[in-house]
Design brief:
With about 625 residues, this protein is mostly helical. It has three domains: about 5-390, Na+/H+ antiporter like fold (Up-down Bundle); about 400-515, Rossmann fold, CATH 3.40.50; about 530-613, no CATH class. The protein has helices spanning about 5-25, 30-40, 55-75, 75-80, 85-110, 115-125, 130-140, 145-170, 180-210, 215-235, 240-250, 255-280, 285-290, 290-315, 320-330, 335-345, 355-390, 410-420, 435-440, 455-460, 475-490, 500-510, 520-535, 540-560, 565-590, 605-610, and strands at about 405, 425-430, 445-450, 470, 495-500, 515-520. It has a six-stranded parallel sheet, with helices on both faces. Mean pLDDT is about 75; it is low at about 385-390 and about 605-613.
Length: about 625
């Protein structure tokens, strides 16, 4: 009989391996790929996995448990305190306003009791931490204003689960009964037990495990902590994921925080993938077919209400239009904790079983819409509204004329600017991120807002009189566009440009940029020099070898750039260049240079005595 763990594992992994790459290739992201994989293998389509859904929800539960433990570990008190205004202000506003509107809608439209409407409204006001963080990370948006604001809201929502679960028993309790207090007391007691265990049991346990010095034992110990705290919560009739989250928060400021993260991180991606597959597989299409108007009407209403509240909240907290679109779309779905809250409401008989099933389907559908809505926002909305607003924003009047112009003033550009200013060379600094410009001005830099790729901005910055243009822009496509504009209209300018890697350097070379500086090259060679010195080489010898290596490598890049579009020839030339570089460096080592180059040495000649020349 085809059954059992191996069969289930084969089905899950095969579905993920087939669907996710296709979704990524189509630009839809891995989350939507996992969701589609779950739908395909789920009970409603091919039925490859658990028709009763038990296996699916076991995978989903464990995925959420692991994810929330890691999120809890990230809530370091100092970091939490920095974000307090966004967490409590933005997060609190979103949760309370959304819950109020949705509760009123359920009460007046579907005839829910006020208790059931409030509980359901609180459940539906939450967003999916797993889907949002994974999607933002894949698209490189987690460090943007939208990404940071989304994380703050999600953090508040995750913390609010504890009081929400504590409130539900009171909503379900009959007048004169003490069951609400008993349930709330059980919840508070379980949380306190996890906190006490984290301080007086888990920490000593981890020290004992670490003393053994076995990596595999440390990993097992980390998993044991997550599973044990989750099981403790389950015995109390509460969410295992809540137990893992509390345990993570308790250990966030311990000396084992980073070790726990590194132990569990390898499981994170796989478990999140399984969680997304489980969400897709849990969508009950037969129920949707029976009540399509009710379910799709609820999905549309919830997405609309949440989007409106998020948009208003974002504007109140002065998030720019393009970032606000990302923030709104990312958080418009209902989160995984809604499964927990609705299951608890079913246990408390706050809602009948038929409505619990409908709400579970609605939650799963809203989660499935997120990757699609993010794609629509990225392809259709932002190009027409978000970026247009940025482009049409008035640029600053540039009233200075300097020999050097720096385009882009992030970490790379600011380092160049500070070094030049320290040597009495003033530069005209341009940056097209308005929020970044405001922050830099507060730090004391005179930065002008403007898009350096625009010809009028370059004229305003006196590019016709300048001598040097430093391209320090993060986005390589924008750097190439700027290089092409400068070469056409300001050919006298000497262009010095950053490049993230060799292939970015090749693209700039095609635009006649001869002075390209690869970020990784100098730092990695400096590290290599120090490594040689620590191994006994004289510093002069190591430094001379480094200079030769850089010269040979830059010459090789010029040759490789000619073959960047021919993979076979590129690989062949790369192998030849590596062999030639190693031979040239070997010849250099065999040559006898100045034997009295002691000015490079330090520590009273200790390095010279250990020299290997």
């Amino acid at each position: 009989m085809i059954d059992g763990f191996l069969y289930q594992a084969l089905v899950y992994i095969t579905a993920a391996v087939v669907c996710v790459p296709i979704a990524k290739r189509l630009g839809m992201g891995s989350v939507l790929g996992y969701l589609i994989a779950g739908i395909v293998i789920g009970p409603s389509v091919f039925g490859f996995i658990g028709k009763e859904g038990q296996d699916i929800m076991h995978f989903a539960e464990f995925g959420v448990v692991m994810m929330l433990f890691l999120i809890g570990l990230e809530i370091e008190p100092a970091h939490f305190w920095k974000l307090r205004s966004r967490i409590f202000g933005l997060g609190g506003l979103q949760l309370c306003l959304t819950a109020l509107i949705l509760s009123a809608g359920l009460y007046y439209t579907f005839g829910f009791t006020w208790q059931a409407a409030l509980g359901a409204g609180l459940a539906l006001s939450k967003s999916s931490t797993a889907i949002v963080m994974q999607t933002l990370k894949e698209k490189g948006l987690h460090a943007t204003r939208a990404g940071r604001s989304a994380f703050s809201v999600l953090l508040f929502q995750d913390m609010a689960v504890i009081p929400v679960l504590a409130l539900l028993p009171f909503l379900a309790a009959q007048p004169g009964h003490s069951s609400g207090w008993a349930q709330a007391g059980l919840l508070v007691g379980a949380v306190i037990a996890v906190v006490v265990a984290g301080r007086y049991i888990i920490a000593p346990f981890l020290r004992l495990v670490a003393a053994a010095g076995l990596r595999e034992l440390c990993v097992a110990g980390s998993l044991l902590i997550v599973i044990a705290t989750s099981y403790m919560m389950k015995l109390a009739g509460l969410s295992p994921a809540l137990g893992a989250f509390v345990a993570g928060v308790v250990l966030a400021n311990s000396e084992f925080r980073h070790e726990l993260e590194s132990d569990i991180e390898p499981f994170k991606g796989l478990l999140l993938g399984l969680f997304f597959i489980a969400v897709g597989a849990s969508i009950n299409f037969s129920l949707i077919a029976q009540q399509p108007l009710t379910i799709f009407g609820l999905v549309a209403a919830i997405l609309t209400v949440k989007a409106c509240v998020l948009m208003v909240a974002g504007r109140l907290f002065k998030i720019t239009l393009d970032q606000n679109f990302i923030f709104t779309v990312a958080l418009s779905q209902v989160g995984e904790f809604a499964f927990v809250i609705f299951a608890f409401m079913g246990t408390l008989q706050l809602l009948p079983g038929s409505w619990i099933d409908i709400m579970m389907a609605v939650v799963a559908l809203t989660m499935s819409t997120t990757p699609v809505l993010m794609l629509i926002n990225e392809r259709l909305i932002l190009p027409r509204f978000g970026t247009r607003k940025t482009t049409e924003q008035d640029s600053d009047d540039i009233d200075v004329s300097n020999q050097v112009i720096i385009a882009g003033f992030s970490t790379f550009g600011s380092t160049v600017g500070r070094f030049l200013r320290a040597n009495d060379i003033e530069a005209t600094i341009l940056d097209n991120n308005s929020e970044h410009v405001e922050l830099l001005r507060k730090m004391g830099f005179r930065v002008f807002y403007g898009d350096a790729t625009r010809l009028d901005i370059l004229h305003s910055a006196s590019a016709s009189e300048a001598k040097i243009l430093v391209i320090a822009i993060d986005d390589q496509a924008t750097s190439c566009k700027l290089a092409a504009t400068v070469r056409k209209h300001f050919p006298h300018l000497t262009v010095l440009s950053r490049a993230n890697n060799n292939f970015d350097a090749y693209a700039l070379m095609e635009h006649k940029v001869e002075r390209v500086y690869r970020e990784c090259l100098d730092a990695s060679v400096r590290l290599s020099v120090d490594a040689l010195v620590l191994l006994g080489f004289r510093r002069y010898s190591a430094t001379r070898a480094a200079q030769k290596f850089i010269a040979y490598d830059e010459a090789a890049v010029q040759k490789l750039a000619q073959h960047r579009h021919d993979q076979k020839q590129y690989i062949h030339t790369t192998r030849q260049e590596i062999e030639m570089q190693e031979q040239l460096l070997a010849n250099d080592r065999a040559a006898i240079y100045n034997l009295n180059d002691h000015a490079w040495e330090s520590n009273n000649g200790d390095e010279m005595e250990k020299g290997t020349d």
